[in-house]
Design goal:
Blueprint: H1 2-17, H2 24-43, H3 47-83, H4 102-117, H5 127-135, H6 137-140, H7 148-155, H8 163-196, H9 203-234, H10 252-258, H11 261-272, H12 282-300, H13 304-322, H14 340-361, H15 365-376, H16 388-407, H17 425-441
Helix pairs in contact: 1-5, 2-3, 2-4, 2-5, 3-4, 5-7, 8-9, 8-16, 8-17, 9-14, 9-15, 11-12, 12-13, 13-14, 14-15
């Protein structure tokens, strides 16, 4: 077990350092900080000292995020504010690169020290185990955001190769590659054109562009999550599920229980509940809900569009909260064919989510407004956007993906096969071959994972 963990830790550091070796020092320092802070919190007998160590760890971790991710945003925003009063500030900006995955591994460490402070877990005294928990390469750069209560016990016990789990992991990797390369990267070609010049396209073209971005970001991020979970299973680990077919949700509350599940649950456990959750007055619950959504938006990046996106989803959440209906769709649809009512709810939720994705994708609030204006104004543009054969093929693949995931909605991923399917090996391998050929065919349109920038 020690040899396994050591090899995986070295491999993870090589994996991360291959991007930029200089940021390994930041990753190691952050990991050391939380490792020793956890021990110090556990050994402290007074509540005041425990809280002091917690504050030190949280402040330094969030300080790194503030410098690398948010410093230029706040400085630029303050400078823009001063310009309104005819002042011309000359405030220097930091010319630094955002370390890939910093938001993810920072939240890994914070959850660890929070859980020790709340006495949910005891600290580990094995540095290799904890370092691997933070930097395990499948989840290091884009999640899922793991919990020490879930992953550390798996790291601290012997693991043996499991053939069936590994085979299913390879299937999940294959499905993730399909969603990333065939769906997301090909959607990106059209989405980039439409969002770069919304004035050059008709309203219907802009609507199609927004829909394609909804599937681009889903295929991109859920595809990465499938690759991460499948890769981890090859080494004997079961990571937290991050997506559960979110576009089949029937309201916004259900959507957020299915989309980026690890981040949603993180904010719920470490922000929403500590702030009082829904235990106080209705006004307090509303306040806590807005705090969570605004922080979730700001976590994604230093831009007013992300804050507006979080605010928009908080507004969508309000009717469900105020009418006590946020858990009315806690269980997924079990029927093979959805009812008319469920179909309308799924369609409405998808439309509302897609409107939010326009805000998310736009470079600025002004660009988002221009996009909305031209999309709903039929005379804003007289040009006609032809989808072309490539885009038409992507739409066909999107429908194919939705059909597969609807049929597999009771299973963890699209290529999960029941044991009885083993009676048809030729059909199974024909599906594998078809997906592999599609991945190879579309592999030229390479796009960076969207969530690497967060």
């Amino acid at each position: 077990m020690r040899a396994q963990n050591t090899i995986l830790l070295i491999a993870s550091y090589v994996f991360y350092g291959y991007w930029d070796w200089r940021f390994l020092f930041l990753l190691i320092f952050s990991t050391l900080l939380d490792f020793f802070s956890g021990i110090a919190i556990h050994r402290s007998h007074s509540r005041r000292l425990r809280k002091l160590w917690l504050i030190i760890s949280v402040s330094i971790n969030l300080g790194f995020l503030a410098v690398f991710k948010y410093f230029n945003f706040f400085v630029s925003s303050f400078a823009d504010f001063l310009v309104r009063f005819d002042l011309e500030p000359n405030i220097p900006l930091l010319n630094i690169i955002l370390p890939v995955g910093i938001s993810f591994y920072t939240f890994h460490g914070l959850s660890y020290v929070f859980d020790i402070y709340r006495e949910k877990i005891k600290p580990t005294y094995q540095p290799v185990d904890y370092f691997l928990f933070v930097s395990f390469f499948p989840l290091l750069v884009a999640g899922p955001i793991e919990r020490a209560t879930h992953l550390l016990p798996q790291i601290s016990k012997p693991r043996v190769f499991n053939y069936h789990s590994s085979v299913d992991g390879l299937r999940q990797i294959l499905w993730g590659l399909f969603k990333k390369i065939v769906i997301a990267d090909n959607c990106a070609t059209i989405v980039n054109q439409v969002f770069a010049d919304p004035g050059g396209f008709s309203g219907i073209s802009l609507a199609i562009g927004a829909i394609l971005f909804a599937f681009q970001i889903y295929g991109d991020f859920s595809g990465y999550s499938d690759i991460a979970l499948g890769s981890a299973r090859l080494f004997g680990f079961e990571l937290l599920r991050n997506f559960s077919y979110p576009y089949f949700a029937r309201d916004i509350a259900e959507f957020w229980r299915r989309w980026h599940i690890s981040l949603t649950s993180w904010f719920k456990d470490y922000v929403y509940i500590p702030f009082g959750g829904n235990k106080g007055s209705r006004l307090l619950t509303v306040r806590n809900t807005f705090i969570v959504f605004l922080l979730s938006g700001f976590w994604h990046g230093a831009n007013w569009t992300f804050l507006l996106w979080g605010f928009y989803h908080a507004l969508l959440f309000m009717p469900l909260l105020l009418l006590n209906k946020k858990r009315q769709h806690q269980h997924p649809i079990t029927t093979r064919i959805p009812t008319v009512s469920d179909t309308l709810k799924i369609f409405t939720t998808f439309v509302l989510v897609t409107i939010g994705w326009i805000i998310f994708r736009a470079d600025s609030v002004g660009n988002a407004w221009e996009y909305f204006y031209r999309m709903i104004n039929p005379v804003s543009s007289m040009s006609i956007f032809s989808l072309g054969p490539e885009a038409a093929m992507v739409i066909i693949f999107i429908f194919a993906m939705l059909i597969v995931e609807w049929l597999q909605k009771d299973h963890p991923h699209g290529l999960y096969f029941k044991s009885e399917f083993g009676k048809w090996p030729l059909a199974r391998f024909a599906i594998y071959l078809a997906i592999i050929l599609c991945i190879i065919w579309f592999s030229e349109n390479q796009e960076q994972f969207i969530y690497f920038q967060f």
